[in-house]
Design brief:
With about 850 residues, the protein is an alpha+beta fold. The chain is about 40% helix and about 20% strand. Strand 2 and strand 3 (about 40-50) form a beta hairpin. The longest helix is centred in the middle third of the chain and has 22 residues, at about 550-570. The two termini are about 35 Å apart. It binds phenylalanine and zinc ion. Zinc ion binds near residues 294 and 320.
Length: about 850
């Protein structure tokens, strides 16, 4: 059976239409008889009609299922198959529903529901995948306990909760915690485990396992440590303890997203859990630690307290991202994590919020919920919680969180429930604050200043550009962290959080001996675009003196952008004062290497395009590329005499340790190597490549060489060395495209799609190639249109294989209105071509239509 004709007018779901399900689900018992092409799923579900139900319709979701039989209280019944599920006449009292269905996991390339990956059975149910396993009220507000029996000849057969029995060819599991179906999981295959254990603060022993394919055992130790640290951190910081005797993680190669928080059985994209010094970079290690923490933290913020409906997705995701960012800041460096997060927010969320795919953190309508696992729901959702914490203060934040866990444990909640605990814990009215959840768009805040007679006044004007045809948006509550510095660099006012609530608002500071230099939006205290007329010398001053590390970086970043923008718009030469400031900073060994590496990393070309667009210019990708090249070359030349010394001084000796300290040093060393490679013909990079004993240094050397078009031999050697390692090969695919010159990017990518190791079925590999194409700004937007064309062709081909990944990658086109009319016409033609594809998935259809209709 197929989904309803996807090109027919798709159904839109609205938040305002929410209605509870008319039945309680008392318990669920599932029996799986595994077989690659014909798995049988028997379900036995006890339903009780709710006395106060508005709606008694008995509708169960179901897609791509073959119904074999259905019974109520043991008597066969005839169910009516309807669009998206079935209906049935049922008794007015408690009854047992039984159904047997057949599904085809081996044919499931969409990787949603029960599917196979390298011969292993695996499930993915969030958001609406359980309905591809059996008929069920597949909505997050229906929670029940699950008992699962798996029959098959796989050596390892896992499900949620605790094991309750196993024998030859079968295994049984019981999860005592009521959960929505999206948290159901089953895994079966030839797996080996890396074991561990954790004793909770109340003294309960928990068995931990990371399950992997044979051969990957050596890549689990880091993930296991990250898991234990996460468990401890959640106890220490939030007072939250784990609630089962067992916690399993499974690594799977074919997975649409990063990882999934299924109760007691997290399933991970292998790229987000497998780690070893030889195969993973420092950035990989940091990300793996963060994702393990993220999924673990979901056990409370997501599983014990879940979402009433999918419009509330940011309730669990925003909060869990916020918590994992706190964790990473605690484990590593708080300012570095903040800077990284802001870079990512500007790269992914700001363009989304300012383009045709803009939506509030809590959307009010969707066609396909899979399209709303976005930077806005996740990252802006987390920013909103950061603002809330700043506004109420740390003590009140944890007081509110305690109330949240106490009041809502075991429930499926809404953003209203969430805000209410803050109101009740603090007595604060959060009505205006709530606009952050209901309005899309990035507010712009214009700052002006005045100084007279010792009084300094800052005036803020906020506005949020509404989408075309919509009314101006109401002012929001914006926590604006501000500090003041004296002209000699001393801090004369420590950080203070000003609360903006009006469209225009002034704040005064009295008793100042001279006009201060303001440090505004410290720690990036709100996700806004700050507009302030200032000079490059003031920025350079803040880069040298600001006491807030985030704003110190921000000053350098703003300076870098100004210099780039001037180069692009006026053909200016790279600003000498800025080059001097950079040189001074790089050579200053007192400064944190990680911080120096970040300041030395140029703003991305896409960021420059976005900045030009925000200022009313049409970005020219080739010019932006040329400016970047000129700048980096000039910087390399300026540093020429010190580069060899700096390279030597920042080289990390001794065995590789993937900690924050070493990572910071290696990041700086990598930046220096890339500059050096522009001058020494690649000698140093070739030496580093040959001697590296860890992926961070091997990869840095290869990237520097390839960028300089001197890496052919090393790229071949890299392939030979790593061709059997799937995750390392993803790097190899991506790097060639990332390093290609604009005019050869599309051709390079195209050639790689013909490589025997390229695959449409593996999302990591597809993303390695197509993601790198879209990420090479000047190459993707090359005037020939070849980049657009290649991506569109591949998206069309992928759609029938894997709609979710196709739809997500369509977002590469979301910034199309930034560019000139010729590029716009080219992109529009590609989007129309995608939309005209027959049998296009609902996922891709929605994304492309939204982009076209804006
Ligand atoms: N809930 C997962 C997470 O954020 C993400 C996810 C969504 C995974 C949908 C798979 C499918 O942790
Ligand atoms: Zn999550």
């Amino acid at each position: 059976m197929n989904d309803a004709a996807p090109n027919a007018a798709p159904q839109t779901f609205y938040l305002k239409d929410y209605k509870p399900f008319g039945y309680e689900v008392e318990s669920v018992k599932l029996t799986f008889q595994l077989s690659p092409n014909a798995t049988k799923v028997h379900s036995a579900i006890r339903f009780t009609p709710k006395a106060d139900a508005e709606d008694n319709r008995f509708f169960l979701h179901g897609e791509q299922l073959s119904l074999i039989s259905a019974k109520i209280d043991g008597t066969p019944v005839t169910a009516r198959l309807v669009d998206g599920g079935l209906e049935c006449d049922v008794p007015r009292t408690s009854f047992l529903w039984e159904a047997e269905v057949e599904i085809d996991p081996a044919a499931n390339t969409a990787l949603e529901g029960l599917y196979m990956s390298n011969g292993m059975y695996c499930t993915q149910c969030e958001a609406e995948g359980f309905r591809k396993i059996t008929y069920y009220p597949d909505r997050p507000d229906v929670m029940s306990t699950f008992t699962v029996r798996i029959e098959g000849d796989e050596p390892v057969m896992l499900s949620n909760g605790n094991p309750t029995g196993a024998g030859e060819g079968w295994a049984e599991w019981h999860d005592p915690w009521p959960k929505p179906a999206y948290l159901f999981a089953l895994v079966a295959g030839d797996l080996v485990n890396h074991p561990g254990s954790f004793t909770t603060k109340s003294g309960k022993d928990v068995e931990l396992n990371i399950w992997v394919r044979p051969g990957d055992e050596g890549k689990c130790a880091f993930g296991m440590e990250a898991l234990k640290k996460s468990m401890k951190w959640d106890e220490d910081v939030y007072g939250l303890e784990y609630d089962l005797d067992l916690f399993n993680i499974v690594a799977v190669d074919d997975f649409n997203m990063g990882a999934m928080e299924n109760k007691g059985l997290n399933i991970f994209n292998s790229s987000c859990v497998l780690a070893s010094p030889e195969t993973s970079t420092d950035a990989n290690f940091e990300r793996i630690e963060a994702i393990i923490a993220h999924e673990y933290f979901h056990n409370w913020t997501g599983n014990r307290i879940t979402c009433r409906d999918w419009f509330q997705l940011c309730l669990k995701e925003g909060l869990t991202v916020f918590r994992d960012a706190q964790f990473t800041a605690d484990m590593r460096s708080e300012p570095v994590k903040r800077i990284e997060d802001v870079i990512a927010l500007r790269a992914r969320q700001f363009p989304e919020d300012g383009g045709p795919l803009a939506h509030p953190p809590r959307p009010e309508e969707f066609q396909e919920i899979n399209n709303f696992y976005t930077a806005t729901v996740y990252e802006k959702g987390a920013e909103v919680i950061g603002m809330l914490k700043r506004l109420v203060g740390d003590d009140n934040y944890y007081k509110a969180l305690n109330l949240y866990f106490e009041r809502h444990d075991g429930q499926a909640c809404t953003i209203e429930d969430w805000l209410k605990v803050f109101e009740d814990a603090t007595g604060r009215d959060l009505n205006q604050f709530k606009l952050w959840y209901s309005q899309a768009g990035t507010p712009r805040v214009k700052v002006s200043e005045e100084y007279a007679d010792g009084t300094y006044t800052l005036t803020f004007e906020q506005s949020t550009p509404p989408p075309p045809g919509q009314p101006e948006k109401a002012p929001r509550v914006i926590p604006m962290a501000v500090g003041l510095l004296s002209p000699n660099g001393d801090e004369v006012r420590a950080t203070e959080v000003l609360e903006l609530t009006e469209a225009k608002q002034s704040f005064t500071f009295e008793g100042l001996a001279s006009k201060p230099v303001p440090s505004i939006l410290r720690e990036f205290s709100a996700p806004v675009i700050l507009e302030r007329e200032t000079t490059n010398s003031e920025r350079a001053f803040l880069l040298a003196h600001d006491t807030d590390p985030f704003n110190r970086w921000e000053a350098g970043n703003a300076l870098a952008k100004e210099v780039r923008v001037a180069m692009v718009l006026d053909g200016a030469a790279p600003d000498a004062a800025y080059l001097d400031a950079l040189e001074k900073l790089v050579r200053d060994d007192e400064q944190d290497p990680a911080f120096r590496a970040l300041v030395l990393s140029p703003p991305s070309q896409s960021d420059i395009a976005q900045t030009l667009h925000e200022r009313g210019h049409t970005p020219d990708p080739q010019k932006i590329y040329d400016a970047a090249e000129t700048f980096t070359q000039t910087l390399a030349q300026q540093l020429e005499t010190s580069l060899p010394r700096l390279y030597a001084a920042t080289t990390v000796e001794g065995p590789y340790v993937p900690d924050a300290d070493g990572a910071g040093k290696r990041a700086l060393n990598g930046r220096i190597l890339s500059l050096l490679t522009r001058l020494d013909g690649g000698e140093q990079a070739a030496r580093q490549y040959a001697s590296a004993d860890n992926m961070t240094q091997q990869y840095a050397a290869l990237a520097a060489l390839m960028k300089a078009e001197k890496g052919e031999a090393q790229s071949k050697a890299f392939f030979e060395q790593w061709q059997d390692d799937r995750l390392v090969m993803d790097k190899w695919f991506a790097l060639q495209i990332a390093c290609a010159a604009p005019e050869t990017t599309a051709a390079t990518a195209k050639e790689l799609t013909q490589h025997p190791l390229f695959s449409m079925k593996n999302p990591n590999r597809f993303r390695a190639v197509m993601g790198a194409l879209a990420g090479n700004h000047a190459g993707f937007h090359h005037a020939s249109g070849a980049g657009y064309q290649l991506l569109a062709e591949n998206l069309i081909a992928l759609d029938s294989v894997n709609p979710q990944t196709t739809a997500r990658m369509c977002a590469a086109f979301q910034t199309w209105k930034r560019y000139d009319s010729k590029r716009q016409a080219q992109i529009q033609a590609e989007l129309e071509r995608i939309l005209a594809t027959s049998d296009l998935s609902r996922d891709t259809h929605e994304m492309v239509s939204r982009m076209l209709s804006a």
